[in-house]
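dumping this here so i dont lose it
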């Protein structure tokens, strides 16, 4: 009844007269639309409409306007002022604002190459409301016929002739002012990376010949001459000074980054000439000279370069031991041939970092808590090495009957995770330039986790060596798990669990899930993201590919030294069976921007894994799952598939796993305010097994019929954009359920609560 009352109240507000408080002779701006015939227009034309209606959502706009109209006109009363603040004042139509919008829209079309554009407005009045239609006719656009450089400065002209970067403007492109601005930025970037530190894009200009009578333009780029008629100065770097370990910004005086040498830090400062770079280190011996120099791209004798300064900023900022970086350049006192001195100041972060946390969990209605305590040392060996130690625990309260079912008993777990990260490659035989590249890191990890249930005790031990680095202007991100060893064992099993689960069934999936196993894997992952956006509406994409192989090292060891076999015919190393499999996956996501408030994204995910040799089935932790906040959102986490398999009871996680995965999603995103965003989505996908397991009937992949087993769901979402964090709430409804009988799978028009799943996530799903 309360929900019904709230809904009724909202509709009463929406039904309130929106014409109230409209002065005589004025009109409420009800809506507007833009009609145009410019297929090649790329800018967000809505940005140039000066006067917007109350809100982009009609119902919400009426509700807020209704709240405002509920208030009295006497603003001396606090109640009226309070109600008005909760609502939204009516937007009254302004003829002058409309004319300005019309002119701005026409000008924008001109800027995009429609030099003969025409703009008009159509007004529709209904009672006290008015709607505005902006009618735009672009005509035939002007396009670039020829684009050439005619730079008077001979040194700059010679440089531009040697630069291999293609110009943004080519024959046939629209005569777009936005692209001309991008071309100016490109020239500015080039010049500021080859020594012209005082260069500005304002020095670049274009001459356009539009008198060809064919809607074509001959375009010429030139650079204004220097004010003193001399060539623009081209600078080289001279003295490089790095001041490492200042513990306070108070030690920096003046906007030029000059150092106050009277501070205590410099009383016993150590100044070293290290490979041509002066390094000043104070009492705290903050960073080793090698670590400081390794991340510096500014070299004596090299031409000034914005790119190298940016790379230096990024390299130092990525070092967790550094809190802040300041880089300044100034004319060198030795300047006779345009020399610059550079000063780099490195401020240390706190070396020790502690964190305590308490997380709440809710798994299918089962409530749990997970406390943790973490410690991190961010500069262990004075080279920004990171040591991390995390103690964690968890306790889950299982609801319902606790009559002996393995899934119906409370359990707890605890463990420790340790890691040591070095900001370079630690690997023999690598050349120094590759080993010490700033984006490289090496991480060693060791962990132990104990899981205690009423039926058994289970232990997980892991050990790993991981390398990561970036290439191709940081667009390609690489990760190599050179060695990732996971050892799973069950040191204790209750008689009840042994007799009723492990001994009384031939379920190979259940046996695999609860058997001692050694998984020694090597994996490589690469992620590609697109580069710089040329406009605010430029699409974004990401491509992630990974491949992993398990069992190579144990296979080599058992081949050389021989191996015993267990009762299932699996070879063992150190008394434990090891897994062998290959696994690969591909994920692609692409986002299109129709406007600053409207975008559409789609996602494609593929995965395939094949056990071989010593394994007849993949380890449970390495199998594929479907359903969840980042998967097919009409199903709860890990509850879809495989294939047309019918779920057995509420807890059937062992059987709902597969060797192959396919997912496709499309999502329409609409920004309502800076804080809120609505989304509508359609997800499709499933998992399959490559082997016909008796325990998973209907789960095997069949090329002739797999399309009949693709689950489909649809739903809506609300996103809360906090700028630094995006919180996501999604509700998905099943539309096609392959887990039902063939004749009852299409349930699009049978919406029920038990066909819906609710999800909470952080960040976009793709």
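and the seq i came up w/
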């Amino acid at each position: 009844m309360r929900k019904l009352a709230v809904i009724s109240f909202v509709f009463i507000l929406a039904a309130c007269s929106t014409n109230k408080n409209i002065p005589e002779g004025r009109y409420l701006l009800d809506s507007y639309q833009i009609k145009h015939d410019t297929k090649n227009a790329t800018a967000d034309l809505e940005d140039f409409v000066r006067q917007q209606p109350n809100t982009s959502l009609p119902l919400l706009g009426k509700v807020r306007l209704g709240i405002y109209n509920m208030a009295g006109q006497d603003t001396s009363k606090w109640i009226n002022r309070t109600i008005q603040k909760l609502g939204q004042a009516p937007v009254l139509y302004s003829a002058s604002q409309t004319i300005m919008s019309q002119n701005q829209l026409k000008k924008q079309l001109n800027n995009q190459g429609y030099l003969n554009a025409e703009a008009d407005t159509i007004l529709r009045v209904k009672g006290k409301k008015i709607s505005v239609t902006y009618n735009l006719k672009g005509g035939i656009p002007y396009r670039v016929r020829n684009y050439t450089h005619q730079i008077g400065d001979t040194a700059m002209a010679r440089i531009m002739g040697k630069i291999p970067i293609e110009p943004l403007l080519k024959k046939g492109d629209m005569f777009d002012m936005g692209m001309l601005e991008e071309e100016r930025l490109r020239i500015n970037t080039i010049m500021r990376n080859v020594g012209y530190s005082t260069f500005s894009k304002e020095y670049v200009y274009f001459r356009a010949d539009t008198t060809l009578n064919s809607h074509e333009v001959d375009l010429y780029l030139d650079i204004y001459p220097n004010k003193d008629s001399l060539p623009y100065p081209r600078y080289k770097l001279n003295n490089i000074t790095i001041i490492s370990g200042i513990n306070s910004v108070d030690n920096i005086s003046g906007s030029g980054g000059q150092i106050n040498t009277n501070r205590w830090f410099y009383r016993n400062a150590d100044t070293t000439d290290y490979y041509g770079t002066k390094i000043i280190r104070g009492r705290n011996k903050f960073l080793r000279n090698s670590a400081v120099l390794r991340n510096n791209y500014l070299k004596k004798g090299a031409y000034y370069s914005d790119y190298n300064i940016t790379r230096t900023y990024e390299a130092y900022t990525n070092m967790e031991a550094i809190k802040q970086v300041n880089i300044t350049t100034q004319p060198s006192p030795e300047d006779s041939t345009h020399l610059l001195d550079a000063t780099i100041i490195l401020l240390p972060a706190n070396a020790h970092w502690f964190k305590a946390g308490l997380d709440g969990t809710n798994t299918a209605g089962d409530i749990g808590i997970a406390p943790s305590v973490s410690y991190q040392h961010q500069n262990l060996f004075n080279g920004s090495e990171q040591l991390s130690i995390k103690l964690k625990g968890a306790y889950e309260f299982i609801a319902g009957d606790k009559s002996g079912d393995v899934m119906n008993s409370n359990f707890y777990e605890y463990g420790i995770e340790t890691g040591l990260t070095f900001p370079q490659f630690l690997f023999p035989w690598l050349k120094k330039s590759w080993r010490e590249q700033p984006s490289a890191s090496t991480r060693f990890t060791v962990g132990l986790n104990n899981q205690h249930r009423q039926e058994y005790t289970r232990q997980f031990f892991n050990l790993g060596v991981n390398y990561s680095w970036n290439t191709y202007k940081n667009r390609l991100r690489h990760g190599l798990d050179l060695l990732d060893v996971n050892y799973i064992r069950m040191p204790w099993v209750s008689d009840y669990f042994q007799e009723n689960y492990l001994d009384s069934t031939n379920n190979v999936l259940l046996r695999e899930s609860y058997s001692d196993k050694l998984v020694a894997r090597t994996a490589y992952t690469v992620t590609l993201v697109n580069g710089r956006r040329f406009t605010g509406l430029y699409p974004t994409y990401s491509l992630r590919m990974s491949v992993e192989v398990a069992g190579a090292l144990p296979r080599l060891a058992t081949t050389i030294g021989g191996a015993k076999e267990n009762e299932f015919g699996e070879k063992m190393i150190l008394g434990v069976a090891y897994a062998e499999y290959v696994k690969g996956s591909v994920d692609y996501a692409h986002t299109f921007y129709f406007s600053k408030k409207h975008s559409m994204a789609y996602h494609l995910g593929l995965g395939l894994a094949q056990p071989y040799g010593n394994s007849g089935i993949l380890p449970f932790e390495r199998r594929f799952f479907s359903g969840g906040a980042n998967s097919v959102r009409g199903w709860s986490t890990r509850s879809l598939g495989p294939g047309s398999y019918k779920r057995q009871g509420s807890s059937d996680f062992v059987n709902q796993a597969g060797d192959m995965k396919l997912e496709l999603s499309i999502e329409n995103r609409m920004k309502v305010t800076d804080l809120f965003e609505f989304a509508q989505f359609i997800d499709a996908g499933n998992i399959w097994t490559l082997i016909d397991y008796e325990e998973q009937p209907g789960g095997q992949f069949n090329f002739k019929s797999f399309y009949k087993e693709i689950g489909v769901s649809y739903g809506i979402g609300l996103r809360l954009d906090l700028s630094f964090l995006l919180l996501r709430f999604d509700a998905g409804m099943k539309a096609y359920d392959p887990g039902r009988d063939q004749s009852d799978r299409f349930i699009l028009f049978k919406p029920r609560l038990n066909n819906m799943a609710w999800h909470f996530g952080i960040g976009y799903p793709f």
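The chain has twelve helices and 31 strands.
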